Amino acid sequence: MILPIIAYGDPILRKVGIEIDKDYPNLAELIENMKETMVNAQGVGLAAPQIGKAIRLFIIDTSPFANDEELEDGEREFLANFKKIFINAKIVKEEGDEWAFSEGCLSIPEIREEVFREEKITIEYVDENFKKHTETLDGLAARVVQHEYDHIEGILFTDKISSLKKRLIKKKLENISKGKVNPDYRMKFPLLKRK
Question: From residue 139, how far is each of 9, 18, 68, 105, 163 by CA, in Å?
Fold first, then answer.
């Protein structure tokens, strides 16, 4: 089932997610719904807070990046197959030079900004079967994970841009929270006036 994506301005996007266990109600169904919602919105990641659940769960599917002509073959192939579920994730290390990339977010449609992030991360998490993993990622895979990880920490990519850029997009952000935006996927707007 395709779920509405929570728009910028909703307090749930600012909550730090809580850890869950294998008995979390309807977890398999929730994950399937999140996958369907992400694909429908043409996203490469989706975190539980974006569908109204303040839990430490996010999903990634970087296959849309595999069409990027500028990538080396090895990275293109890796991104084509990088589809994972992260539960109770914890980034234990970020390293390398910071690099800029134009990021967007399904909760903040029609806004893209350059965000600087470190190039390499090590992350611990459990998958949908609650099997533990520790992985080191770099490049675009690391960036997508960092972006989604921020969501379960109550952080948005707009928090990571300069104060000048924040001022420049302030009105656009206000409009998003009021529903004055037209994404081609379902959204739930916190400040939309009900008639």
Answer: 30, 28, 13, 18, 26
Distance in angstroms (rounded) separating the CA atoms of residues 145 and 62 = 10
Taking the alpha carbons at both ends of the chain, their separation in whole angstroms is 27
105 in a labelled binding site: yes
39 is in an annotated binding site: no
Do 65 and 43 form a contact (C-beta atoms < 8 A)?
Answer: no
Q: Dump pLDDT digits (tens) for 32-81.
A: 999 999 999 999 999 999 999 999 999 999 999 888 777 788 888 999 99
Fold exhibited by the domain 5-181: Peptide Deformylase (3.90.45)
Query: Which tokens belong to 40?
Result: 């429908």
How far is it, in rounded angstroms, from Cα 151 to Cα 145? Answer: 10
With beta carbons less than 8 A apart as the criterion, state whether 56 and 20 touch.
yes
Active site residue 75: no
